[in-house]
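Thread: Newbie trying to understand structure tokens

Hi all, I'm a second-year student working on a class project, and my supervisor (Dr. K.) asked me to get a predicted structure for one chain before our next meeting. I've only ever worked with sequences, so writing a 3D structure as a token string is new to me. If someone could post the tokens and maybe explain what I'm looking at, I'd be very grateful. Here's the chain:
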Amino acid sequence: MSLPVLLSILWVFAATLTALLPMRNQYLPGITLLIAAPILILWLGAAHGWGWSALALAAFLSMFRNPLRHIWARARGHGAERP
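---
Reply by user tm_fold:
Sure, no problem. This is what the structure looks like when written as tokens:
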């Protein structure tokens, strides 16, 4: 098993454990996972093909859709809705 696959599996477990934390304790690990994911997805795509990277990107966007909507709204200068 390659290093990007192992790190992807560890990322999934870290995201699951983060989701089990109370909301006030999710911010720091959540931001860390949010920053690490695109790097890991690109590395996975370079090592195993861009099809796998596209699937990983779809899963990432699905899991982080609310934080990404919030960041997108703030970047455009709109008040972001709370989920």
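A couple of things are worth pointing out once you decode it. The helical segments are 3-20, 27-48, 50-63, 65-76. The mean pLDDT is 88. Feel free to ask follow-ups in this thread.
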